[in-house]
PsbP C-terminal domain-containing protein (Flemingia macrophylla), 261 residues
Amino acid sequence: MALATSKGLNSFSQYTHLSSKPLSSMVVSSCSLSWISPCLSLSQKLNLPHSNYLSRNTATSSTNSVFCALETAPSEESYCQRRPLLLGIGALTANLQPTKLLFAQEVPDRYRAFVDYEDGYSYVYPTDWKEFDFRAHDSGFKDRYLQLQNVRVRFIPTEKKDIRDLGPMEEVIYFLVKHRYAAPNQRPTIYDMQERTIDEKHYYTFEYVLTSPNYSSASFATIAIGNGRYYTLIVGANERRWKRVRNQLKVVADSFRLLDI
């Protein structure tokens, strides 16, 4: 898809501010931009407001619901943290190759899109959330007032080609929640599991609660494999607020997409 602009790159440059870091940050004001070249020599991470976004879901999805209480086991995965580069753009349409077409579907009202061309993923988050650094994660956003209400994404290298290569969905999710997500003093419970297929890519999304003596958290997680990476998105909140925010956070979990890089 190729869209023209009335001012071209010269006009684009006058609305652009580069930080002191070498080509590592760009902020674009809400102006009359209608495209941005994918060939810019900088990290391609976009933080977009309500706008056209993401390839259209043309595949079917399947849902399996389960409930199971799990024993806990301590474990922690190691990830490389990278500071995300954001492009704040008022209105943007991308002139990209077909494999990177992201703007065919509307972002839901009251959400923004985070698009990371460099690391190959995208998702949406509530417009009133702000960016934050979450240890060992590649990107993250949180509620301005309720810090435990947040979304974060991380990934690790893998030789697997697809999430299905890890095994049956129930076994994979059971292992993750029991051995990766739960701390020694937490009792994990899985409430729902879903497998979705979008643009021939497969995603597992599941809902779980981690209960400890003094605090409980509820979350959705979406996992997927692509680009030689195993991606994990987790969005959650205090369990006491879960009924009020569950539907809002489910939109975030379901929005996660892999991009070819």
Remarks:
- The CA atoms of residues 23 and 41 lie 8 Å apart.
- The longest helix spans residues 242-255.
- The two ends are 18 Å apart (CA to CA).
